[in-house]
Amino acid sequence: MNSKWILTLLIGAACLPSALHADDHDLNIKFDGDVRYRVQADKNESDSVARLRNRVRYRLGATSKVNDSATVYAGLASGGTDPRSTNQTLGSEFQTPGIQLDYAYIKHQVKPNLNVLLGKMKNPLVRFNDLLWDTDIRPEGVALQYNRMLKGKKWYVNAAYFVLDEEKTANEPALLVIQEGIEAKIKDIDIKTALSVYRTLYVAGHMFEAENSTGNLYSGGTNTGATTGLTNEFNTVSIAMKVGKADVAGLEYVGVFGEVATNSEMDSSNQAGIVGVAFGDKKVKGKGKWQTKVNYRYIGKDAFLDITPDSDAYGGDTGVQGTEVAFSYGLSKMSKLGLDIYSMDKIEDASSDTELLVQLDYSLKF
Q: Which is the CATH superfamily of the domain at 3-365?
């Protein structure tokens, strides 16, 4: 059974209750997706040679508007069960890899400016960078999205209850999020802000159970107590901003972005931050379009849960710092080339190696 049939069955099952009460519902399923081929090299200073991998990513998504208020989303992706990667590394004697459920959720439009999301979802939070959240993560639980226009500015509030682990008790580890922000245009400058408050429930004393080689659920094992039981809850507050302007020094777009975060439950190694600049075309969609991005990031070992940061920055560990340089070039409206380079170090371990990661991508949307 191919991917489209699998997604059609998923969408159909989710839509069935509403479809039974809809006279003219035909599932009207829309598909989209992408394929990416990546050549990746990573090397620590002490390694005599770099590790070179050829990797492929395949994603297929489907959307069906069930009625005026309910829409169902479902997606499949390559890779294993790692929540921070959908890459499939080539070179296992031509073995046939599996396809995983990437996301499956329902979005109910309660009011024109209020949505409720239920299931395993694309991240409902506004993010301007990947300091705290890897872009592949699909949170699970319930989320609310509200927005309204105030004096020509868009004001929004997002709230979420994300399930982190399943326990045979009422005290299941979870993450509560409240986020508020504004999107505005002042003259020819675009300004976006986000204030986010993250509060964990019942993670103190908890260890995310074994599924990978480190004995944790794809965590870096870098939070205090990660391998024996986390020492404290997390109460992290972050402030993020993105400012962009068109037509600067002959460039279509120049933007700066940044974020700072602090976990008040810990007294040290509890801060994180990122600052960066992007310039070139605002979006790389079309032949000859391009953009370059440069950033520096710092994330203390207890600034945030070590299961969510960008997995390409020292494997997604906390307690790291370093730079990233990325370049994208459009080959057509649907295809592009990308080059991404990370140079990262451990913050508190002077004897640790610098990790260099280089990724060369060709991606095609359909």
A: Porin (2.40.160.10)
CB 78 within 8 A of CB 99: yes
Asked if pLDDT for residue 307 goes beyond 90, the answer is yes
The pTM of the full predicted model, rounded to 2 decimals, is 0.90
Q: Which residue has the tokens 């960008």?
A: 310
Half-sphere exposure in the Cβ direction for 203 (13 Å, CA) = 27
For residue 76, the SS3 value is strand
Q: Residue 340 in 3-state DSSP?
A: strand
Instruction: Write down the domain spans for the chain.
Output: 3-365
Strands of the chain (E only): list them.
30-44, 51-65, 70-77, 88-89, 100-111, 114-120, 140-150, 153-163, 174-186, 189-201, 235-248, 251-263, 271-280, 290-299, 320-330, 335-346, 355-365
pLDDT digits (tens, 9 = 90+) for 152-192: 899 999 999 999 998 777 789 999 999 999 999 998 999 99
